[in-house]
Amino acid sequence: MNVTAFPPKGAGLESLITERKSCWERLKAEKRPIFIYGMGDGAMKIMAVFREYGIPVAGIFASDDFVRGHSFAGYRVHKLSEIEEMVEDFVIVLAFAAGYPELVEYIRALSRKHTLYVPDVPVIGTGLFTYDYCMEHLQELNAVYRSLADDESRRVFLNVIQFKISGNISYLDAVTEEPEAIYRQILKPNRNETFVDLGAYNGDTIRELLSYTGGGYFAVHAMEPDRKNFKKLRAYIEENDMKRVNAYQCAAWCTDAELPFSAKSGRQSVLSPGGQLMTARSVDSILQNQPATILKMDVEGFEREALWGAAKTITHHAPKLVVAMYHRNEDIFELPLLVKKLNPKYKIYIRHRLYIPAWETNLYAVAES
After folding, report:
1. What is the pLDDT along the chain (369 residues), one digit of tens a residue?
2. Buried b (16+ CB within 10 A) or exposed e, 181-212
3. What is the distance between the alpha carbons of residues 319 and 306, in angstroms, rounded to a whole number?
4. Under 8 Å between Cβ of 273 and 260
5. What order do you get walking across the sheet with 59-61 strand by strand?
6. Cβ–Cβ contacts within 10 Å for residue 93, how many?
7. Backbone torsions φ then ψ of 43, nearest 5 degrees
8. Which residue pairs, CB below 8 angstroms and at least 24 apart, start in 47-53?
9. CA–CA distance from 119 to each of 92, 162, 284, 350 (Å)?
């Protein structure tokens, strides 16, 4: 693997992307048994691609605490130790996301012991992020790459692309950044921020922001559609006796509307055609021409619509932006290009926070003064 330290701004990605063969192609060519680590939605998506490529599944295993005689998709769920006793050499395909340091380190250790792939399957939408997909969207990817504000953003951008193609976590390890560096170097928050939090979950991002402002802020507007998450958000606000905080149980959208919403009571509560109707609001409608200084969006694949719903705010007030860009395959190029379209004064940064796969790869935008 070749990780470029500082990819030159003038170069095109066609000469920098060295991963040409996808993890799916490599897995199809494997002669060793392939075991899937994990159960749930991620495993189902991966197994669907396996069927498409004709990749055989030798079995399923889970962390010891989750086995307990379970079966999944017709397979008995094993412990890793059981597989290691039965099979001398095998391949592991990770089928869940990990964001806690202890779990990430365990997965890294696993990759040093066995051949490990972490396939990139979109959280929302269809299709696979392959080298061919990159070549189909080379013009857009190059436009983003050449517009990025610093060498580190270009390095992160390239490494995330290489990871998405290859499933090799060392690409992510090489560019994982601590939150403190992002806050201190890019966002630089102060005690007078008006913070708009789309996808507020239980208040975790509000709590994180305030840890860098000493608890100070001017106002907070928080939107969270899931009922149980919203209850936790309200409890956080009330327990801390927070003033000038407006909490809305609604989805973020390009306009005010009623949308079908599927509540999963977790971080991945999503809009769904089969869901119950729920109120959706735009940022511009909520703010009513009042300024925002930081706008964060993590809305499970609907960041594009949320950006359009904040178009006036972004154009006229240029808040600092934090936008998740990992839910859909196209997010990695569509969202930066949309931000630049809405306000060309923005300097665009990309950083990856601790997570496997490439979740927590975010766009940060700060307007030039």
Report:
1. 445 455 666 678 999 999 999 999 999 999 999 999 999 899 999 999 999 999 999 999 998 777 766 789 999 999 999 999 999 999 999 999 999 999 999 999 999 999 999 999 999 999 999 999 999 999 999 999 999 999 999 999 999 999 999 999 999 999 999 999 999 999 999 999 999 999 999 999 999 999 999 999 999 999 999 999 999 999 999 999 999 999 999 999 999 999 887 765 444 456 677 778 889 999 999 999 999 999 999 998 999 999 999 999 999 999 999 999 999 999 999 999 999 999 999 999 999 999 999 999 999 999 987
2. ebbeebbebeeebbbbbbbbbbbebbeebbeb
3. 14
4. yes
5. 71-72, 75-78, 59-61, 34-37, 91-94, 115-117
6. 24
7. -65, -40
8. 47/73, 49/24, 49/119, 49/121, 49/128, 53/24, 53/25, 53/27, 53/28
9. 11, 12, 37, 21
Residue in 28, 12, 56 with CA at minimum distance from that of residue 128: 28
Query: Using CA atoms, how far apart are residues 236 and 248, in angstroms rounded to an integer?
Result: 14
**Chain position carrying tokens 């923005």:** 346
- Amino acid at site 27: L
Between CA 10 and CA 138 the distance in angstroms is: 14
Q: Let me know: does 236 contact 203? Beta carbons within 8 Å.
A: yes
Contacts (Cβ under 8 Å, ≥6 apart) of 241: none
State the amino acid at position 195 in one-letter form.
Answer: F
How far, in Å, CA of 350 to CA of 358, rounded? 12
Ordered strands of the 194-198 beta sheet = 176-177, 346-353, 361-367, 320-324, 294-297, 194-198, 219-223, 245-248
* pTM of the complete model: 0.93
Q: Could you tell me how far CA 88 lies from the centroid of its own chain?
A: 35
pLDDT of residue 266: 45
Token pair 């004709």 in the structure block, residue: 54
Q: What is the DSSP letter of 56?
A: P
d(CA 349, CA 177): 13
Structure tokens given for 74: 């017709």
Cα end-to-end span (Å), the chain: 39
